[in-house]
Amino acid sequence: MDLLEYQGKQLFAKHGVPVPDGRPAATVQEAVEAAEALGYPCVIKAQVLIGGRGKAGGIKLANSREEAEEHAQSILGMDIRGFTVHELYVEKASEIDEEYYAAIVFDRSAKKPMVMLSRMGGMDVEQVAETDPEAMRMTHVDPLIGFSDFNARELIYKSGIADDVMRPVGAMLAKLYDAFVAEDAMLVEVNPLLVTKSREVVALDSKFTVDGNALYRHPDTAAFRNVGAEDPQEQMAKERNLTYVKLDGNVGILGNGAGLVMSTLDVVAQAGGQPANFLDAGGGSKAEAIVDAVEVILSDEKVTAVLFNIFGGITRCDEVANGLVTAFGQIDVKVPFVVRLDGTNDEEGRKILADANLPNVHIEKTMLGAADRVVELAGAA
Amino acid sequence: MSILVGKDTKLAVSGLTGREGSFHGLNNKRYGTDLVAGVTPGKGGQDVEGVPVFNTVHDAVAETGANTSMIFVPPRFAADAILEAADAGVDLVICITEGIPAHDMLRVYTHLKRGTTRLIGPNCPGVLSPGQANVGIIPAHFFSEGSVGLVSRSGTLTYQIGNEIAQAGFGNSTIVGIGGDPIVGSSFIDVISLFEQDDQTELIVMCGEIGGDEEERTAEYIAEHVTKPVIAYIAGFTAPPGKTMGHAGAIVSGSKGTAQAKAEALEAKGVRVGRNPTQVAELAVETVGAKA
């Protein structure tokens, strides 16, 4: 789960990572109140889960109450690369002397946390990493020992940062590591890590991704869930405990198990079709889950045909078939369905479907045959 | 022979008294797996259809000689259960549980690598050696004994591909689901190195998916260390970047980790890559047919 800037900064502050003073605001009035309380100049920042806010006009400096109001008005509701701005963060302006970069990532290859530091922070840090790899210093941390002073020295001496801020930058890395572990983060990133004109070190931005599997032990973070940012179909699926990812095509897809669903998307694409979604109904898919899944898939108006690809293991094909029959009883289905049932109780499942004689439901035996059929029925995207 | 599980497996199931644990544990027993114990704190002294239950894995090992542990406890207790099994000295832990926090697995993984206990999973369907033992949730009736070693990151996709291979006339030495999480105990390389040493295995099939660089590193390993033919499949060619596709591990960030990059890395090292499950079975026929 990705957190908004101000949410990440709240977690930073909780673990002693220095951040500028600031307040979130959901309305223009709240933003003006925040600006008045913080004093001028202050910065009005769009809170969206995507980069490039500054370039899109989502970050503006306010020198007065009037400017704060004007900027809040223009940024709230703004569209930034497909994300609507529902919240603002009003922050005391900082005087920029230098911009560094710091991050801690979950390195899957090494199976260790990796801490990164660069003296070249700011807007185009990805390019820095590519064109001048020496400017991005990285070190791995033993997860059973934690971040040691030597890990910090390994980074601060080689990164080329200014001598006078080596200590506070090293201290910030240690605090970031505390936050990374304590908050079950998959990623924390500070860009820019700011050195102010008075040579103070602060985190001017935050990118914070937490592990959804660990939310049970972080109720405060779980409450951050940023509903407005989610696609309506994805939100509907989440409420029903289905794993759903919206895509751009017109072939609705349901399968059981993430790998099989990914493979199903691939064979549909190979057959010339365009998948509308990824939907994993999970192991042991019960009839109820199937009804929910059909509703979610059909709530996407672009869908012109649906493919059910089930390989029964724990999932029993007869239960899936019963779920589909129930769904057709409850929902007015207008598009054709192609159903491929294989594995546990597949014959029973196919018999249930044949007996129910559902309109416009086509039964296929193989995965490739089913893909060809659904693409033909779906027509052009 | 087979790898990981077989006639010598003596299985203790953590969570045997739970609904899923008893269903699958007893299913494994009916298949012929030597299920010797269950472990549930507070239920020591009870039994599940004649299988004795102990309070701790240490007790189970001392009383029954269990050498393999299967974890079927809820995610918040699973990391502790894996550590307990390793502390009790079992050789192999197979963790089925899905949804264990990644930081927990990071600590467990690092600890286990310093000892001798091997971990398969978590978030995996388990290990099946047809005709010998089944530890996990793989539906065994699709598979028969044979010469193909199958290793996969995904559950149902394993059954799909396994079934295509079975219909092409092959049996399996062992089927291993290594799990779809960012941190799993055993990698493709770990399992493929076991297949390379296994007499029964003549052909190795690996099913990967988007995310990480495991498949790329496996390609390097195969080129240097594996003499047996390997056929691969990669799921997720159509996955959009930056979106998680169900498995926590299956996320594409930038160009690295895409299905295309993985397929190319494998093909560059002489591994044939099927573009769909049916093609994998066709390649298996071609490869072993050409060998004979």
Overall CATH architecture of the largest domain in chain B: 3-Layer(aba) Sandwich
Beta-strand portion of chain A reads 25-35%
The assigned structural class of chain B equals alpha/beta
Mean pLDDT of chain B: 92
Describe the structure.
The complex is a heterodimer of chains A (381) and B (292). Chain A is an alpha+beta fold and 381 residues long. Chain A folds into 3 domains: 21-92, 2-Layer Sandwich (Dna Ligase, domain 1); 96-222, 2-Layer Sandwich (D-amino Acid Aminotransferase, Chain A, domain 1); 230-378, Succinyl-CoA synthetase domains (Rossmann fold), CATH 3.40.50. Chain A has helices at residues 5-14, 28-38, 65-75, 125-131, 149-156, 166-182, 219-222, 232-239, 258-270, 287-298, 317-330, 346-356, 367-378, and strands spanning 2-3, 22-25, 42-46, 59-62, 79-80, 83-84, 88-92, 96-107, 112-118, 136-140, 185-196, 201-203, 207-210, 243-246, 251-255, 277-280, 305-312, 337-343, 361-364. In chain A, strand 11 (185-196) and strand 12 form a beta hairpin. The two termini of chain A are 31 Å apart. With 292 residues, chain B is of the alpha/beta class. Chain B folds into 2 domains: 10-120, 3-Layer(aba) Sandwich (Rossmann fold), CATH 3.40.50; 143-291, Succinyl-CoA synthetase domains (Rossmann fold), CATH 3.40.50.261. Chain B has 9 helices and 14 strands. Chain B has helices at residues 19-31, 57-64, 75-87, 102-113, 156-167, 188-197, 214-225, 259-268, 277-291; strands at residues 10-14, 34-39, 47-48, 51-54, 68-71, 92-95, 118-120, 126-129, 133-136, 145-152, 172-177, 203-209, 230-235, 272-274. In chain B, the strands form 2 sheets. In chain B, strands 3-4-2-1-5-6-7 form a 7-stranded mixed sheet, sandwiched between helices. A 7-stranded mixed sheet of chain B has the order 9-8-11-10-12-13-14, sandwiched between helices. In chain B, helix 3 (75-87) packs parallel to helix 4, helix 6 (188-197) runs parallel beside helix 7 and helix 7 (214-225) packs parallel to helix 8. Chain B is globular and about 55 Å long. The mean pLDDT of chain B is 92. Chains A and B meet through helix 9 of A and helix 4 and helix 5 of B.
